UniProtKB/TrEMBL annotation:
<dbReference type="GO" id="GO:0046872">
    <property type="term" value="F:metal ion binding"/>
</dbReference>
<dbReference type="GO" id="GO:0042274">
    <property type="term" value="P:ribosomal small subunit biogenesis"/>
</dbReference>
<protein>
    <recommendedName>
        <fullName>Small ribosomal subunit biogenesis GTPase RsgA</fullName>
        <ecNumber>3.6.1.-</ecNumber>
    </recommendedName>
</protein>
<dbReference type="InterPro" id="IPR012340">
    <property type="entry name" value="NA-bd_OB-fold"/>
</dbReference>
<comment type="subunit">
    <text>Monomer. Associates with 30S ribosomal subunit, binds 16S rRNA.</text>
</comment>
<keyword id="KW-0378">Hydrolase</keyword>
<dbReference type="GO" id="GO:0019843">
    <property type="term" value="F:rRNA binding"/>
</dbReference>
<keyword id="KW-0690">Ribosome biogenesis</keyword>
<feature type="domain" description="EngC GTPase">
    <location>
        <begin position="74"/>
        <end position="224"/>
    </location>
</feature>
<keyword id="KW-0694">RNA-binding</keyword>
<dbReference type="InterPro" id="IPR031944">
    <property type="entry name" value="RsgA_N"/>
</dbReference>
<feature type="binding site">
    <location>
        <begin position="114"/>
        <end position="117"/>
    </location>
    <ligand>
        <name>GTP</name>
    </ligand>
</feature>
<feature type="binding site">
    <location>
        <position position="257"/>
    </location>
    <ligand>
        <name>Zn(2+)</name>
    </ligand>
</feature>
<keyword id="KW-0547">Nucleotide-binding</keyword>
<feature type="binding site">
    <location>
        <position position="255"/>
    </location>
    <ligand>
        <name>Zn(2+)</name>
    </ligand>
</feature>
<dbReference type="Pfam" id="PF03193">
    <property type="entry name" value="RsgA_GTPase"/>
</dbReference>
<dbReference type="GO" id="GO:0005525">
    <property type="term" value="F:GTP binding"/>
</dbReference>
Amino acid sequence: MCLSRGQIRKALSGFYYVYSEGETYQTRARGNFRNKNITPLVGDDVIFKSDSTTDGYLLEILPRKNELIRPPVANIDQAVLIVSCVEPDFSANLLDRFLVYLEYQQITPIIYMTKTDLLDNILYQEIEEICRYYQKIGYDVLLPKFQDPDSLLGELERYFPENITVFMGQTGAGKSTLINKISPELALETGEISQSLGRGKHTTRHVEFIPLLDGLVGDTPGFSALDLPDMELSELSKQFIEMNRASEFCKFRECRHLHEPSCEVKKQVEQGEISESRYKNYLQMLDELENRKPVYGRSKN
């Protein structure tokens, strides 16, 4: 058996399908992985050996730059964050939670708004104003034209080449529907909104990295809620990029932007430079972290 380097692109029933030099190899993890509490993830770069494309073993998991928990995937470059304007209703709190989660994992977010065809002109203008703020602080935001939800598909496609991309967002926001529009041959399942619950049904069954537009994409489950990553209290404000910039001018180095004097963040909130909504979401998350029960033996990676 020769040693090779490859990338896990699919995990199913204890088998790991590794792509290497134009071929896909079916492999299993060696027993010492379990003894060392190591679980291979889709997206992992690995060292493996094999006699054939159907008989191989994983020998080593190479260092990861990041990983997601749900689903368990690794080494993501960017996330298309699907945000519904309506049905389900737009949630600034959930959007900010996703952004904190992605910032902490060092995954570049691309915010893509859906269902603009279901808005009236006034609601569209409100969403447009919200999007302008996120663009101002540094995020790529794609808001399709009024009554034309597919108007920016071409703009979105330019992000895919040479990147590993996941689609994520609120349950029912239209992730699988969007992927189908970009690449109908993927034939991903789509689901209707559950009217009685006001949220979408889970339709994504598994994760597999699929070649698309000279990159790799994977769909992730939707969320009606999202837990914050395990982090120190002092780390939270660093994930709000405009607050992190402003904090350089706070009087105290570890300012939490609560009651401290000469806090630049609070000053910019009062002046309207930092969104009051974002600041309130920060306070809510800070309170959540302060009251979280400790979980021992868990680390970021």
